[in-house]
Specification:
CATH architecture: Alpha-Beta Barrel
Number of helices: 9
Helix content: 25-40%
CATH class: Alpha Beta
Distance between the termini: 16 Å
Shape: globular
Structural class: alpha/beta
CATH topology: TIM Barrel
Largest sheet: 8 strands, parallel, barrel
Oligomer: single chain
Amino acid sequence: MHYAIYVPNFGDCSHPRRLAEYALEAEEAGWDGLFIWDHLMWKPGLKVVDPWVALAAVAMNTKRIRIGILVTPIARRRPWKLARETVTLDHLSNGRLILGVGLGNPPDLEFKQFGEEDDNRVRAAKLDEGLDVLVGLWSGKPFSYHGKHYQILNSQFLPAPLQIPRIPIWVAGKWPNRAPFRRAAKWDGVIPELARPNTEIKPKDLLEILAYIKRYRTLSASYEVAVEGSTPEDPAEGAEIVSPYIEAGATWWLEDLHERRDSSKDMSARIQHGPPIAPR
């Protein structure tokens, strides 16, 4: 089991230097990763930091932990620009980047307000095509693509990522919607949530989700399952919460600091107490 800090890119943590400090605190406290949300607004009136710029600061301030964004909505991005950014961060971090992808939310503030397509089906199609483009450009070989939404003439992007065969891709989805999990089965990991608002995923939900993914999984490579939640500062109490998820198949625990986003002191305190692992 791996343990990561899951930090929103708004509120008190909306400064690249502060996020870099959190990342160093996490590394020193024994966490395995730090992941940042990717939002433009989330809600009106919030201070927001660009997660990609912030992640560069995080990469420079750490040496060991995995880093990434959970999740970036490819539908509002140009996949070739994202390919350049992700490979640059992969090299900057010495091969520690993980890319989380999804449709993006909320569609009104994050898409429609800026004249972007907010229809879920269109965004899903752009997500699938965008992933094909990313992998093609990451290959470092000449690549062309002719899709409904993206077209690329013969292009070669160098350098290729440090990670082999490529940067890991985790796909987010809201259960019981099925399509995101059929998509997730094709890639390297899944970040499952429940479609019901303000409802935490339970181990029984995770078992059902993973059974569904298994029906469509054709690759033999290892598969990551990232579950988000909150635990108390006492490691033993936290371990009791996480243990049923491990038994259900989770491989990453994402400690959600969203509720602490407006207090740097509270966020630092939770990070410094370390991951929810019971003392031996």
